[in-house]
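Q&A log
Question type: sequence-to-structure
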Amino acid sequence: MAFFLETLIGGLMAGMLYSLVALGFVLIYKASGVFNFAQGAMVLFAALAMARFSEWIPRWTGIDNRIAANLLAFLVAGVLMFAVAWLIERLVLRHLVNQEGATLLMATLGIAYFLEGLGQTLFGSDIYKIDIGMPKDPVFILDSVFQGGILVNKEDVIAAGIAAGLVILLSLFFQKTTTGRALRAVADDHQAAQSIGIPLNRIWVIVWCVAGVVALVSGMIWGSKLGVQFSLTTIALRALPVVILGGLTSVPGAILGGLIIGVGEKLSEVYLGPYVGGGIEIWFAYVLALVFLLFRPQGLFGEKIIDRV
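Response status: OK
Response body:
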């Protein structure tokens, strides 16, 4: 039982981080109908900015305190991601409103490659480290309940806590603020929202800026765990099954989908891997997503599309 709980907790921690990346897809798709394939590049760009600014700011300002330097680096990187998101919406996507889905897809792919190149130009192409003070050592919990306790990684717990906190803040933002309610109105019906005076362009800018902040937090956490390298763009590919499972238009679906896939990957690898030679963790999420595409393409919480003729 202790080993099962240990695997389960590890899956929940990983799933929470998948959910965080998937949120970026969902937020933008809900508000603008654009499936943003540049989300992975945004995570990479944000992580590069955070890593490099945390190195440069102590030299520029003479700040010796690591916490203060990291906080200032986070704020500067956040402003940069706001600027990037605003420019993407202003210079590219605003001019592609009501275009075909294939056109928007190619636009976001072009943005992805542009951000990768810009990140390399501005920040370099080496592997960088983000040290935000998260402890790396594992810890044993529930020693009194299970013999030997349950091994838990402190860094995973803190990362999952940060992700959960951001999800809660976003939920409150959507439910309790005027802007959040306007965002939900735009997500439900663009034309109806515009008819009552909600400016779509301003809403789309806000959504892209929020997605930029989500990308920054995701990049900071994944960069702390894995190091900041260009393979971080593949994190978005890990989040695609989460979006398919939860539904393209559902924030709760992104959260639940991430948890299901995180737990499913870990449990299947541990308990089924020895019988099939391992490697289940690599393809489990995509097979599950394929099953949903065949039998429930709208996902667990997505809206079912009905075409009337």
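Response note: The two ends are 55 Å apart (CA to CA).
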